[in-house]
Amino acid sequence: MRTFKTISKTLVSAALATSVLAITPAVADSNEDAIKARQGFYSMISANFGGLVAMAKGEVDYDAKMAKTYADNLEALTKLNTGIYWIPGTDNEAYAGKTRAKPELWAADSKAFEYGGALGGAIAELAGVAGDGLDALRPMIGKVGGTCQQCHKAYRARSF
Ligand code: HEC
Q: 31-41: per-residue pLDDT in tens?
């Protein structure tokens, strides 16, 4: 006869088995996970930067508190060490349709690290003035945007 204890034990192990199964596909290919992670990182960058761009363009009213929040989020994001997601061999030739990162990003003469540093520097400057009004914000949008473009032009393919 099954006691309550055995039944609940069975339920617990069934639940564990289900959750392990649910996790397994996500870790099946760590390279693909890394690709998704770096894309997620840039989606977060874009979501916050986009809010500031909309204010700079006058599409939404400037709001000092919101502007500062977006800029602080950006600054926090640039403090993450995302280097671990740029695994050599995870370029758009090996992972066609999954990534837009060009193989040149990993070449010996790659400037990706430098360009990433330029992004971090520009964002730190942006965060310093984002809450000080539209006139202070606008020039920094151009500066940060330039660092995005510089890197995309060199290392991000136009399409998947
Ligand atoms: C150091 C280089 C570099 C800088 C700087 C950079 N990016 Fe990117 N970005 C990339 C690469 C490479 C990819 C492609 C990643 C992939 O598909 O694996 C990418 C992808 C993206 C994506 C697509 C994410 C997805 O889901 O596929 C967006 C959006 C994006 N970047 C926005 C930005 C914005 C906005 C900035 C500036 C505020 C920026 N990036 C700065 C290199 C850079």
A: 999 999 999 99
